[in-house]
Amino acid sequence: MSGEIAVTPILAVLVAAALAAGAAAFGGIPLVLRGRLPLAWIGWANAIAGGLMLGVAYSLFTAGGRPDALRVAAGAVLGIGFVAFTHRATGTHDLDLNRLDQTPSEYGYQVILVSALHAAAEGVAIGAAMAVSLPFGIFTAAAIAVHNVPEATVLAAILTARGVRPRDAAGLAVAANVNQILLAVVTFAVIGESAGLLPWALGFAVGALVCLVLAELLPESYRQAGRTGIALATILAMGVVILLDAVRPR
Ligand SMILES: [Zn+2]
User: Fold this and answer.
1) Number of domains comprising the chain
2) What is the CA radius of gyration of the chain?
3) What separation in Å is there between the alpha carbon of 66 and the centre of ligand 1?
4) How far is the CA of 219 from the centre of ligand 1 (A)?
5) Which residue of 40, 146, 170, 175 is surrounded by the most CB atoms within 10 Å?
6) Distance of CA 12 to CAs 2, 40, 75, 184, 250, Å?
């Protein structure tokens, strides 16, 4: 794995992560077209985004390889710890990420903050995947880019329900993803200096992504769009990523 680190230029990481973050702008389109979205759409959007994240987490875990499984697992514990700690420290551990009505005034800022922390973990995923190989890095960045669209739709729906113009909400959704670029580049550069950190970084991303899906994206979705439908949409989105990972160019 480590032999390929040097051949992926840092510029490729920067461009791929920037495109992934920029994809969030498309998430604002449903708001521009429709204004207010049905609550079930918010549930579906979170389920699809969550399923894509679980697929990415699976791919990252298998990329870690059998010899490094223990280090990947230890990294996953750190990733879960990161999510738990940052949510506690920012007072957002009980925050539902998809409420449109009857929210306190600080809810809008909290949701942007949670989205920014969420995107940071996904930046680590892109950076670690790029360190595995350029094709795997591009694949991971593409999956994160696609998933940024429904996630941005949810954020934009919350913000427009609070009086933000749809176009500004789409801009804020992109802004919340900017640290995804930073974390991708930093993670990649750090692994480039110390290749032994790669399984730890892969594991960190796996733990953080799975934790974010279970604790942040899915809980409220079940109430908004029905349990079976949400479960099926999540599994389907996850399966697509795993399938595409199996057939992608190496
Ligand atoms: Zn996400």
Assistant:
1) 1
2) 17
3) 26
4) 14
5) 170
6) 17, 37, 25, 11, 17
